Amino acid sequence: MTNVKGLWAFIGALVLLLLAVTWAWYQASGKLQPAAIVGDKTISNDEYVTVLKQKFGKQVLNDMINREVVFQEAKRSGITVDQKQLEQELSQIRDSYGSRTDSEFEAALLKQAGTTVEALKQEISYQILLQTLATKDMTIKDEEVLNVYNSRSDRYTRPMQMRLGQIVVASQKEAEQVLADLKNGADFQTIAKERSIDADTAVNGGDVGWVSIKDNRLPDEAKPIVEKLEKDKYSEAIKIEDQYVIYQLIERREASQRTFEEVKDELRREIAFAQVESLDVVLERLRTSVGVQISGQMPH
């Protein structure tokens, strides 16, 4: 399963759309307040819902049906979500956002992808169950899985990561004063909150979050310096464009490799999934198995 943030932004927008349209369909009535008042024109909830249904109704309803069909068929077949795989997928997405705490991850998801952690878990679960249902009758030999694993070893390697703090100031003189205060025992986080001019990290005591040495968020000038930092130590001031940055290493995660045994079941599903027929065909077959009746249409 891919973990590209752009995909999850799309999923987040779709989830919010699902919620909005579902709410509108079930709640629209003459008892509710108008959707909006523009000058002397009132836009009623009925008008609002009608436009939503015309523009997005078919897509959203089909998506809601597909999800319900997959969850029902999985339950009927005794198929459950592998919680370890779910957490692994969620962890990779969280790392891509560089979030430091659960609340920050939730806020980043809502701001950048328009979704929540719970909605994201539901979407990951749907994708895992869909893969499993689509491939449950397929056999992929261990030898083939191992060959694919060996050819994609980089995919299962997590590089060394550093959780960094930073203090950003506008001049060399200010940077020298900050370094002097730190050497005299001043607290790094306190100085970051009070004097760092980077608004995004200053509020968190300068906490940048987890980054790897290849992370684009880490300036090239800083990489060879922070890579050598020891835990709780701070760097000299590094000139980056027209600013000066002092970094602190808060924590380090050494590079790690997911073993073949850890990923073989997940990889087997992916290989099989790449060989299945069209997803539309798979979903249509599942819809027929569960039974779906859309208002105004014959059941199928």
From TrEMBL:
GO MF: isomerase activity
Pfam families hit by this protein: Rotamase_2, SurA_N_3
Keywords tagged on the record: Isomerase, Rotamase, Signal
Superkingdom in the source lineage: Bacteria
Enzyme Commission code: 5.2.1.8
Presence of the UniProt keyword Cell inner membrane in the record: no
Full protein name: peptidylprolyl isomerase
